[in-house]
Amino acid sequence: MRVLIVEDHRELAETVATGLRREGMAVDLVLDGEDALYHTSVHRYDVVVLDRDLPGISGDDVCRSLVNGGYPGRILILTAAGSLADRVAGFEYGADDYLPKPFAFDELVMRIRALARRPATAIPPTLVHGGLRVDPARRTASRDGRRLDLTPKELAVLEILLAARGTVVSAEQLLEQAWDEAADPFTQTVKVTVSRLRRKIGDPPLIETVPQAGYRIAALS
């Protein structure tokens, strides 16, 4: 899952970003509305966590711009203003959820994960394919009851492949969705991660390589 944090309070933003990365999410961080619009123009985020009170271009204007432009990611508004009128205004701009400050970090994680399960095609909270089970919220994976010791990136890649339901996911798509903007697109990162993931999942193989296209979860026989 890839998340964009838009928050002008640098200390809070960095704390939240660090916590979300520990939850296995790929996180980019910007401090103003202009940079938020730039990042969303070049990256596809599953969830944008957007502070309403930004300098320059406000969070409201960023939200309105994303919604009017048909941005596919979900938008979670953060604000110190917690009145009913403020919440209604946030939803009127097209936000998918609203969380007043101060907030509990665990609640933020829960809301982000809930929003990420609401794309055009709903993704179930637990992904199952034969004996393979992935629980994104608990950050766990197992095969035939055997716990898989996966790194956060391996778990993220497996989650993306399972959510694709047998369709091909390119290496570029995996890099875009599971890594943040600091990842080098010219490395073998995705190939190495998939290779390690295959070994940990074991036999019979469940991840297929589609030449010149990418990877997919193998159909059940």
TrEMBL record:
SUPFAM superfamilies in the cross-refs: CheY-like
Organism listed in the record: Jiangella anatolica
Classification via CDD domains: trans_reg_C
Residue span(s) of domain OmpR/PhoB-type: 124-219
Biological process (GO), any one: regulation of DNA-templated transcription
Highest taxon of source: Bacteria
Pfam family, one: Response_reg
Keyword Ion transport: no
SMART domains: REC (SM00448), Trans_reg_C (SM00862)
Gene3D superfamilies in alphabetical order: 3.40.50.2300, 6.10.250.690, Winged helix-like DNA-binding domain superfamily/Winged helix DNA-binding domain
Keywords, in A-Z order: DNA-binding, Phosphoprotein
Keyword Acetylation: no
DNA-binding region(s) from the entry: 124-219
Domain Response regulatory: 2-116
Designated name of the protein: DNA-binding response regulator
Any one annotated GO CC term: cytosol
Modified residues (4-aspartylphosphate): D51
